[in-house]
């Protein structure tokens, strides 16, 4: 029966890919993909479960769907992804509006789940999270000019603060032939910016033979018809000389690297099971900047980690000032149930939040300095359309990743199509985001 299915994707880019795969399975089963939950037969809420705040967001969305269901505007609710994987019993017992659940190893069962709940049956599937990565078609939900390419699943890093290995399983690289076949299809669909994602892309291929194969994959991707290739996320201890060479030499690979550091203090890094120490990190960042001119570094920082006193926090602040990384996500430490760090002594949540706000202030000033250094420069910008609120075009340069960093707002005397690459002269900044004007090519 051609049921109408509405999908809600929460969390990271990898979740987006999983949701797109489920959408393709539903499409191939003859279902209609509904743009809104009102009037749909089933709403699928694909959840994140990485942090308590992500679980809260998931619950809010489920309860919102529950209201529609109670009002007769929606018939059934299926919850998939990390939250039900983490809280299998709780989701079933405490969210009675949910009709079906799928764990992170069971996205392939979405059609079976829809058929079951529409027949009035409760449905639950939690298959092996360590199994090889399922290969499916996708329905792209990103703008047509960019798409995510997931190259691996799971994680073997086992950071003490992180629950992901328990939710997503051990690290499994997708076969290179499958990755390249999908990339070719994306290029054929007109994707101009390919965003390579995994929990840790630097480990790609190490589960095959112990060797790193990301550089091999990137060389093959650069032969395809993409204009930009962006990388998320590179772990500092896995970056070898050959990978750095490929990033530096391949013009399609954007000189924007997202390297999650989390902290710089040696003892905190050791307790959090992070590989390498502060001296190693500083040497790596120096090497990357020397080898890759114009490099923009992005990182993630956690304040209030176990072992962080005032001295360690001051060390972190000084490190950030010294390194001047223009892009950073800053998070107060959240003790996650089931992780080793949750059992360690730490500052309270309020103090962790206060420290996060101080780091955000530091990063805002660093970003302002970096923006100021760009005044008068001409950047290649990927236009994403016209923004009616600012009455200007909006886009991104190599230094802005979608849904993570800011935008560039620019004026133009002529119409510009979304997905076009255009030269923009930077003329100012607005709330931390750049403004500029189109440079008319002669």
Feature tags:
six-stranded parallel beta sheet; alpha/beta; globular; 23% strand; 14 helices; 19 strands; 442 residues
Number of separate strands: 19
Main sheet, how many strands, which sense, barrel?
6 strands, parallel
Write down the overall mean pLDDT.
96
Please, how many helices?
A: 14
Roughly how many Å apart are the termini? 57 Å
Poorly predicted runs are none
Textual characterization of the structure:
The chain is of the alpha/beta class and 442 residues long. Helix content is 35%, strand content 23%. The protein has helices at 13-28, 52-70, 82-86, 88-94, 110-118, 164-168, 176-188, 206-209, 214-221, 241-249, 266-271, 278-291, 310-323, 349-373; strands spanning 4-9, 32-33, 42-47, 76-81, 100-102, 123-125, 146-150, 152-153, 172-173, 193-197, 228-232, 253-258, 296-303, 327-332, 378-387, 392-396, 408-411, 421-430, 433-438. Strand 13, helix 13 and strand 14 form a beta-alpha-beta unit.
Set out the fold topology.
Blueprint: E1 4-9, H1 13-28, E2 32-33, E3 42-47, H2 52-70, E4 76-81, H3 82-86, H4 88-94, E5 100-102, H5 110-118, E6 123-125, E7 146-150, E8 152-153, H6 164-168, E9 172-173, H7 176-188, E10 193-197, H8 206-209, H9 214-221, E11 228-232, H10 241-249, E12 253-258, H11 266-271, H12 278-291, E13 296-303, H13 310-323, E14 327-332, H14 349-373, E15 378-387, E16 392-396, E17 408-411, E18 421-430, E19 433-438
Parallel strand pairs: 1-2, 1-3, 3-4, 4-5, 5-6, 7-10, 10-11, 11-12, 12-13, 13-14, 17-19
Antiparallel strand pairs: 8-9, 15-16, 15-18, 16-17, 18-19
């Amino acid at each position: 029966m051609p049921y109408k299915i509405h999908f809600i994707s929460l969390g990271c880019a990898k979740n987006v890919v999983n949701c797109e795969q489920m959408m393709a399975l539903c499409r191939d089963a003859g279902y209609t993909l509904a743009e809104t939950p009102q009037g749909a037969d089933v709403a699928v809420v694909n959840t994140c479960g990485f942090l308590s705040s992500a679980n809260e967001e998931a619950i809010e969305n489920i309860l919102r769907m529950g209201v529609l269901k109670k009002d007769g505007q929606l018939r059934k609710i299926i919850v998939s992804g990390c939250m039900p994987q983490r809280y299998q019993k709780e989701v079933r017992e405490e969210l009675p509006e949910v009709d079906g659940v799928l764990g992170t190893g069971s996205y392939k069962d979405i059609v079976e789940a829809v058929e079951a709940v529409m027949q009035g049956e409760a449905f639950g599937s939690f298959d092996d999270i360590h199994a090889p990565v399922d290969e499916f078609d996708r329905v792209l939900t990103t703008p047509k000019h960019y798409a995510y390419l997931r190259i691996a699943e799971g994680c073997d890093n086992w950071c003490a603060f992180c629950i992901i290995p328990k939710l997503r399983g051990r690290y499994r690289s997708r076969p290179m032939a499958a990755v390249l076949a999908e990339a070719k299809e994306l290029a054929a669909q007109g994707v101009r910016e390919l965003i390579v994602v995994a929990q840790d892309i630097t480990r790609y291929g190490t589960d095959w033979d112990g060797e790193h194969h990301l550089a091999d994959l990137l060389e093959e991707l650069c032969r395809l018809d993409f204009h930009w290739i962006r990388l998320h996320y590179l772990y500092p201890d896995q970056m070898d000389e050959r990978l750095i060479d490929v990033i530096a030499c391949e013009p399609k690979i954007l000189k924007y690297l997202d390297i999650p550091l989390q902290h710089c203090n040696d003892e905190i890094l050791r307790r959090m099971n992070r590989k390498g120490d502060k001296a190693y990190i500083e040497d790596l960042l120096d090497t990357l900047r020397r080898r890759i001119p114009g490099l923009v570094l992005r990182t993630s920082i956690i304040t209030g980690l176990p072992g962080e006193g005032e001295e360690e926090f001051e060390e972190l602040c000084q490190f950030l000032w010294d390194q001047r990384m223009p892009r950073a996500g800053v998070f107060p430490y959240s003790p996650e149930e089931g992780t080793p760090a949750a059992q360690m002594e730490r500052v309270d949540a309020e103090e962790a939040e206060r420290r996060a706000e101080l780091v955000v202030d530091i990063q805002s000033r660093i970003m302002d300095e970096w923006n100021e250094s760009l005044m008068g420069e001409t950047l290649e910008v990927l236009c994403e359309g016209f923004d009616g609120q600012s009455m200007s075009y909006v886009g991104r340069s190599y230094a802005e990743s979608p849904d993570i960093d800011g935008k560039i707002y620019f004026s133009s005397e002529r119409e510009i199509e979304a997905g076009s690459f255009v030269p923009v002269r930077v003329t100012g900044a607005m709330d931390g985001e750049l403004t500029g004007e189109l440079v008319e090519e002669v």
